[in-house]
Amino acid sequence: MALLQQLAVSFGLGVLLGLERERTESSVAGIRTLPIVSLFGTACALISRDAGGWVIAAGLLSLAAVLVVANFAKIKKGDIEPGMTTEVAVLALYGIGVLAVVASISIAMVMGGAVALLLHCKKPMHRFALAVGPRDMRAIMQFVLLTLIVLPLLPDRGYGPSEVLNPFRIWLMVVLIVGISLAGYVVYKLLGTRAGTLVGGLLGGLISSTATTVGFARRSVAHVGIVSLSTLVILTASCTSLVRTLVEISIVAPGRFLAMAPPLAAMLGACLAITVALFFRSWRVETEMPKLENPAEFKAAFIFGGLYAVVLLAVAAAENTFGAAGVYVVGAISGLTDMDAITLSSAQLAASGHVDAATAWRVIMVAAMSNFIFKFGIVAVLGSMALARRIALAFGCTLASGILILCFWPR
User: Fold this and answer.
1) Cross-strand partners of 190
2) The whole model's pTM is what?
3) Cα gap 394→375, rounded to integer Å
4) Residue 89 clears pLDDT 90, i.e. is over it
């Protein structure tokens, strides 16, 4: 049975990649050749169990020789096609066929799916590469530097009161937040500044719901006709920021997630219900996203790292000195401009046992409510009166749900 599964997966992945290459009119390998290549890799791996690993190496060399001969024949005919994507895909598929036997079927399937996606997403990836400017590329390289070089060098031990300041874990949170924001920024670069209303709000929540609120509040003054659209985008970005909060808790405190997530999800549900009601009135409208800065900038990473360390220390100190009341004050203040720092610090303290899960989610909810109030203040100062009235109603309902949850949710 295991042998049949290996052959079936190898053949299926070969057909998948062959179909994709056939559609691109590749003259090197297509829907018939690539399944044969994957099965050839699987056969070599099966033979190597008795004959030795040299069979796999010999199979790879013979396949490479076939590719060289095929390309040489093309060149003699004057058929010169730039690029080596198909040739590399053939070699990769051979390796995937081998992995189905020597490693596991799951690994082979994941790698095969990844190769298929890379082959299929040629145009979006090229478009993204062209959209990335020198400044963006420098910031991305800085993110790689701080993640792969600086992070491993930091000491993984606690310092300060209650040993809550762990340099490695603090910077790990920086990498997490910048990574989430960077993922949204990548999608933003792929789609360009114009996007559908829903996508615009989702991207705003991933990158910065506060920046999105500022951008659309200002726009509502110059363009009175987009008040409904601006309301929807701001609400969608706010809902996405709450989803982001739940994701952060699941990563930092997976053991406390079930204890912390339900009340926050209930508040998200209230915000989402209002957003859905508005969505059916404005979903056909396209919007132009405000210009967003690359979230992987070196300076921004250090600022967030410092803010996270301060909030982490403040929450621990407030808990030790003033009890839960002091923690809520810290949550309300830090949540005004940034939800990530208080969410991560509360989740980490809950995971380590410094605060209980009930206190942690309540602090995060207080911070979320504070953030909603702050964003309403932005709209009231920078936006039109019509937008301010709509946001006041929508955020007011969300805040009311938050207050009810804080008062009546069982401990």
Assistant:
1) none
2) 0.65
3) 12
4) no
Same domain, 75 and 185: no
Structure-token pair, residue 362:
């309540």
User: How confident is the model over 2-28, as pLDDT tens digits?
Assistant: 788 888 888 888 888 888 877 766 556
Three-state secondary structure call for residue 203: helix
Do 186 and 143 reside in the same domain of the chain? yes
Where in the sequence is the domain holding 81, given as residue range(s)? 2-120
Please name the amino acid found at residue 406.
L
State residue 294's pLDDT score: 62
Each residue's pLDDT tens digit, 196-254? 555 655 666 666 777 778 777 877 776 666 777 778 888 888 888 899 899 999 998 99
Q: What type of residue sits at position 54?
A: W
Tokens (6 digits) for 407: 């008062």
Among 92, 120, 148, where does a domain finish?
Answer: 120
Give the torsion through C-alpha atoms of 77, 82, 83, 86, to 10 deg. -30
**Cβ pair 198, 279 in contact under 8 A:** yes
Would you list the DSSP string of 311-369? HHHHHHHHHHHHTHHHHHHHHHHHTTT-SHHHHHHHHHHHHHTSS-HHHHHHHHHHHHH
Backbone torsions φ then ψ of 194, nearest 5 degrees: -95, 130
